[in-house]
Amino acid sequence: MKKNHRIQLRLTAIEKTAIEMKAKKYETSITQVVISATLNKPIPIKWEPDEQAEKLKNELSIIGRNLWMLIKYKKKFQLSEQFKIQEIINELLQLVQKINQYYDRKSETQS
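Above: the chain sequence. Below: its structure as tokens.
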């Protein structure tokens, strides 16, 4: 069925942001989020958010910030201790690649 009708909505900035975030979370359109909510239908999504992936993403973010602080303090205070920073970076990059490969394969099987 062809979609050729429009509805205009007035929203607060917070409401608009919440809808946009939900659409982004489920990799779908704002239109689909609004229609699904209004008609009590499930949101048509490309993939389900994975709690484990979100936890890993948060942990990697924390590790990255900590690593950046180590580099910053090493330079600032001219620390004599040798941090194996490049090794840590390489390990993190390998971990991210493995995670990406896992979820790439997972998304291919769901398609």
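Residues 4 and 79 are 65 Å apart (CA to CA).
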